[in-house]
Amino acid sequence: MIELTIDGVKVKAAEGTTVLEAARETGIIIPTLCYHPGLSAYGACRICLVEVVKGNRSSLEASCTLPVEMGQVILTSSERVKKVRKLIIELLLASCPNSKTLQDMAASMGVNRVRFKIKDRGCILCGLCVRFCAEQMRSGGIGFVGRGTSRRVATAFDVTPEECRNCGGCEWICPVCEKACMAGNLIDGLCGACQNLEPVETCPVCTECSQSVGPSGHKVY
Amino acid sequence: MKKLSSAADLERLRKRILSRRDSEKPCVVTSVGTCGVVRGSGAVAKAIPKALSSLKIKHLVDVRTTGCHGFCEIEPVVVIYPERILYQRVTPADVPEIINETLVNNKIVERLLYVDRLTGKKIVNERDIPFYNRQTRVILDNNRLVDPHKIEDYLALGGYSALCKALFHMQPERIIAEIKKSGLRGRGGAGFPTGIKWEACRNAPSPDGIRYVIVNADEGDPGAYMDRSLLEGNPHSVIEGMIIGAYAIGAHHGYVYVRHEYPVALANLSIALEQARKYGLLGENILGSGFDFDIKISRGGGAFVCGESTALMASLEGKIGEPRAKHIHTSVSGLNDRPSNLNNVETWANVTPIINRGADWYSKIGTNGSKGTKIFSLVGKINNTGLIEVPMGTTLREIVYEIGGGISNGKKFKAVQTGGPSGGCLPESLIDLPVDFDRLTQAGSMMGSGGMIVMDENNCMVDIARYFVKFLTEESCGKCVPCREGLDRMLDILTDITEGRGTEGDIELLEALGDLLKESSLCALGTTASNPVLSTIKYFRAEYEAHIREKRCPAGVCKALITFTIDEEKCTGCGVCLKECPQQAISGEKKKTHTIDQSKCIRCGLCRDSCKFDAIIVV
């Protein structure tokens, strides 16, 4: 077993587990978007960043891909981590404002403004659908096409391939199309329903219970 | 040709090659690297044998075509050995005169000589040209002596002797110790100590013992082409370094990942590999040592991000070229999940001289933290455009003014951008900065692969930052959010600023996004992508503020913020600008002051460029 410290708590984890898994096992919540316990880690959304302290220096690493190491010191919600997460959520909201998952996360983190122009792309390119299709359904019917801002999820040549069995798994796992935000109007990229102008005291909406509830109850941001 | 089966065989072959060569025999050298070819050196090279034949002196003169010599500004270059007489900007029509005068009549063709910019004197000998004689050419020098299509040329210069030394007189651990002692750091950008990387790869467990050595030749920085020149001009220097590295690491498979846009490099490398195989320098049982190693070439598809180690290996495996988290280094688990050692072209080319001349010799060159020489491609608003090789620690001033010959058209130096699109812009106040890995990083830039873009007073730094961010936005793989979305938003903000829509708070938002990219991106493309923005804000903040607050572009570049007018006192009414204007925005009678119709003007600047009286004012 490997011993490490997460938010001051001594944690034991089996070799090969990631910091995210070790934290969740202990009941420490790290928010995620592109992670799913049933799929391979991808490390793209960067929401799960944690601060890895090494002596006087520290760096931010994605906890979903970071393997546990003996003596590691991890901070999951330091000021530095929170600052980065908030800006990432702000960027994601500006490119995908109609996702309830994102709006909830923004609210729970106390993001109360979006300073960027809204360019609704309807997808955050988390790759959950692509990995679900390949790893769970053993299909590989969808994949990424293009790069940079023109990157998108598509089937080959935009034709429904034989591999697709219409299982609907891609839609089911999508954090955007699964739960579209129902609020009528967005105010500066934020949905009016759960918008919090001040950082919240307790998590107002339990997005995914298994992820957001630890032994001490709701996570306070 | 017989396969060489021992070190003694190689030495015998070398002696035989040298016995057939006469260093006093005249030799006409043309450089036909990519830079030379685009300026017509191919036709010049073809004209030389013809001219020799017509004078019936073909048997008395050797002819050699080589890769790029480095001084791209004066291509096509013809150099006549043994005297090393250099003729610049040669056309095929000049060739008969060069041959007849220089080789038959022993006279110099004065009009084709290089003229020194400072003294105005004509220089005959290549060695006396300041551009060359202020450099320390350890890696690049052989480019002028080697025909890349002939392994014999490389062997004649002592080629593959370092390989013999390594294979027969050094244990792999000794080689790694030597490389570590030399202080060689990776030339691809990050500057990781090469010896430590090799050691990690050698010691990493591999389930089936397979290890890989890979050359990163996916050189994509705008304005950087040192790797191309090395592969085109002296491919064997890279191959020899690779074999030594493979022997030290215990690898039997090598790859060269070369970008598709380098067809000449690809062709020359393929020929070199073939020749090395025929001589038994590659393949099974190299030189009878019992060590097997071969190299395959893999061509990149044109993605900048594939220069990143994990993206490159994904691409080699046939997957989408996008990076992965590097908590486990590629030297432990890289290509096909095996230990893989990736080094840049120039790093591999440094191995041979280190093994030949020793780590002690090598570590005397350079600064405390950065050893050896570094090749830079000096481009932009500079008089002497070209490839230069200088010891680490050479100051920017020496590079720009002494080797580079100063700023073109007598303009004022403003900044130099080092390290490609992810590097930073260094202002005039840092002109005495010694260039090495650590000093550049401290100054907010980086070594990168060694691009150096010089800018003058007519470059707008906001526009430059916008250009590089646009490049990176297009080249980001799009996997991680900070790089994909952050760069896109930075580009939006920078575009707004350059088009007069900047608002208070934009600079702070750019800084916040820049820090986000640095802190949270997945790979080095993202973590360094904000350097052009952050460094220009750091050193040229006033220029940003002028754009935002006064809606003014001090350098006169951003089209939305400038107007072209005609100075009544200077305008002679010659009518040249009137004819040049593609919009017919200029009117005026002959010999009377002309005027520009602002509603039609598209601010292309053609009138300013055509005016001989400096009468066009840009505000």
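DSSP finds 24 helices and 19 strands in chain B.
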